[in-house]
Sequence to fold (290 residues):
Amino acid sequence: MTIKNYLELCKPRVVMLMILTSMVGMCLAPSSSFPVVPMIFGNLGIAFVACAAAALNHIADLHIDKLMGRTQNRPIVQGKISVKNSLIFAGILCFTGMLLLVFLINPLTAILTFLSLMGYAVVYTLYLKHATPQNIVIGGIAGAAPPLLGWTAVTGSVSPESLLLVLIIYVWTPPHFWSLAIYRLEDYAKANVPMLPHTHGVAYTKLNILLYTILLTCVTSLPYFIHMSGKLYFAGVSIANAIFLYYVLRLYFSNDRKIAIATFWYSIYYLGILFLLLLIDHYWITRAYL
Fold:
């Protein structure tokens, strides 16, 4: 049971999605051979630091997690793990992850990974989350970093293509998170967290979700137009975008909160599908030229 509680501190489903995007960044990065070392130790280091950031988020949000139905059963809230032990656990994970990245990958990836941790666990969680309804927009850059980290783990440098992968997740984040915020409106109001539906109303939030999703449709087409990916990716992402727009339009014209949570869940599948399409398309094209 204790292992399960510590695992819950790590937000494993979120971290798994992050590592998928990191792996795709590694595979898409230019390399003379398959990046075995970055794939193993780079992703392990990134995952450890991401888990540390998640644990710190649990600690920092303890006071509001007690008030929200979605988070009332978290291990620290329930007293299953103490704040002290959670801090020690996060420290061990962060230290181990940074050692792996510094000594087995490269300093740039280690620095960017640590900055992502600070951006999420400190800047977003402790300040932005409580300061502005644009918290998820401003703080979203930290959560969008994994494909960049994967890219730098292989190349040791930042490129426009790697930043495009970051941009995709960055634009995806607001419609993803605001859909959940609409569904959990009362929770955020009870905790006095200034999420957009609470501060500006559900109708305004729905409009922003729609606009960001339209922008996402444009941004996710860019890999094809800059020849970073091929027709397989473009066809697949076009279908995924059409489905996303369908969910968002249903949400826009409906007052049913269940559509909001359905949109939230689809957005998670959408991001996974998109990065898998990038990966499949990349190796499909590579094989076609062999």
